[in-house]
Every structure is written in structure tokens, then in C-alpha cells.
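Dear all,

This email documents one entry for the complex benchmark we are building for the journal club exercise. For each entry we list the sequence lines for every component of the assembly. Then comes the predicted three-dimensional structure of the complex as a C-alpha cell string, followed by one or two observations. Please use this as the template for your own entries, and keep the labels exactly as they appear.
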Amino acid sequence: MLRRSVIFCLALGLLVACEDRRPDREVWRFAIEETQGSVQDAYAQRFAELVEERTNGEVEVVVYPYGALGTSDQLTEQVHNGTVSFAFASPGFLGKLIPAVQVFLLHFVMSEDEAVNNRALRDPALLSELDRLYGAKGFELLSVITEGWMAWTTNEEVRRPEDFEGIKFRVMTSPLLLALYSAYGASPTPLPYAEVYSGLQLHMIDGQVNPVFAIQEMSFYEVTDYLVFPKHAQFYTTLMAGSELLGGLSEARRRMVAEIVEQLHGEIFDVQRRFNRDRLDIIRERKPDMQIYELTAEERAAFRERSLPVREQYVEMAGPEGRRLLDVLGAAVRRAGEGAPPD
Ligand code: 6CS
């Protein structure tokens, strides 16, 4: 595998890459919203490896981890203006620009079987609907992936919506997440990813929600006492490119990207499962007194009940295309469930 270095400078708002690379190679910049060792990093590294293999080294993919090029919102802008070729854009941030994509943030909408959800994410009707929404903003949607079940970490035991009262709970900046956690009785606090650890440490916030691999690698477990699995939603993210960049590729290169993305959809599903499982073990080992528990069916039902009116708020925020996307997603999950081979 070709080695990449990601030493670079940002000057006058322009990206000036100082990568030690061959001048005869085309460079594709791939920005992720997570640190090295994360699910998105595993995806991007594998994408780079496959692109380089299949182009015989004619294309080099440089991966920029979280923080290198800015926040999630800034990455989206960079894809738009062509500075970055590919980027992950999570609905928790992208929802401000494409309100309908917040459908992936709704609670208790998807299946309890993550393999079913993963199949639903490749549903052609769903992808074509999303394609239109991303296209209208100058982006090309390449894939939607899951990064695993979301878990809450808090300083207080939370089992019922009433327990959320007075808890300043960090969420990504989407208005829908504010609505959801307000419905649970919490005081939702939007913050960029990079500020969560210090926010918890300084008691500016009392809890946050993320998949286990992120809770481990961002060390959120160090500064919270409870780790709760409500099984209310998974973390979904979208991979996108600038329409201009992809439009400028040859037919063969476009096909190659589509094939790689298709291959990685299955591979990354297994990677996230492994990361989330192994890193829960690391948390247990490093912090034996962390209180880790799943909500019971009855406890979950109380949250589900509170989350239902927020679906209407979603439709108000996202309009008729939001309503349509919610229906299309529901149908995709049903179809994926019907055709489900045993997990
Ligand atoms: O909570 C967040 O902001 C972030 N969480 C993950 C797992 N990925 C990227 C996102 O920005």
C-alpha cells in the first residue's frame, strides 16, 4: 500500500497541501469527521487502498482526520467549493443544509436488527430520493453507512424521561436533535465534536450520545459515570463528493468509485461491529466502575412514546420532501426486513 503523509498547511483560507507525493499523480482529498482509528478512518483508508490499487497508483487518496480541515460544517463547505474531493457528512450537522436528511436522526424508526438497517441503506428507492436532495445542493451522495448503536453517557443514572430533567445533554447541531432531547426532558446543548470532552470535564454539559467506539476513542467515558444502551437509533453518516468533481471523472473512474463504495458498504458494517464490541471491552477494563446497562423494553417504550410527536416536527422542518423521505425509508426498512437472511 502506498504511504501517505498528511502534513499540510492552511493559508489564507486556501488549502495548500504539503503532502510528500509524486507530482505525476492525481490527488483526491478525503476528509473524515472522526480521528484516526475510527470507523470513518477505517473506511477512508480502505477506500484509498482500493483506489490506488485499481488505478495502479495514478490516483493518490490523502485522508484528513477530524480537526485537520475544520469542523463537520466546514468540511461540507470544502466539498462544495472543490477543495476536498470526498467527505463524510453526518446528518447531525448536514441537517441544517438538507433538512430532510435528519430522517436518519429520528428515534425508534429503524429496525432493532442492525443488519436489516444496513440492507435498507442500500435500497435503490431510498438512494434515488437522497440523490435528488443532495444533487439540489451541489453534492453527490455516494453511500449511507451505519457506525453502530448510539449510547448515552451521563453523570446521572437515566432510565426514564423524567431522569433527563436538568441534564445538559450534548447533541450535534441539528434542530431535530434539539427537539428530540427536549421531548425527553433534557436541556440539549449543541456542540462540535471536538468540544465534547472538555465540556464534560468542565461540567458545562452532563452527558452526550455516540456509538461506543467513539465514546472510547474520544475518552468520553473518562468524564461520565453511566453508559446506557437505549437502542433508540444507530449513528448513520453519509459519504459525499462534490458534483463537479465526480462529473469531471471519466466513465470508468466513476464506475470504479461506485464499485468500491458498494464493496465497502459490507466491509465497514463488519468493522463497526468489531470496533463497537472490542472498545466496550476496553472501557470495561479501563474503568471497571463505569455503570453499563441496557434499557428494558418497558423503559424504552416510555422514550419511544415521547419521541413520536417529534416525527411531526421533522415533517414541519423538512416539508413534503421530508414526509416523502420518511415514507420511503419506512418502506426500505420493511423490504429489508422481509428479505432478511438470518443474521
Ligand atoms: O458526535 C459527533 O459529533 C460525531 N460522532 C461521530 C461518531 N462521528 C462524527 C460526528 O461528528
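Observations: The chain has eleven helices and twelve strands. Residues 74 and 80 are 10 Å apart (CA to CA).
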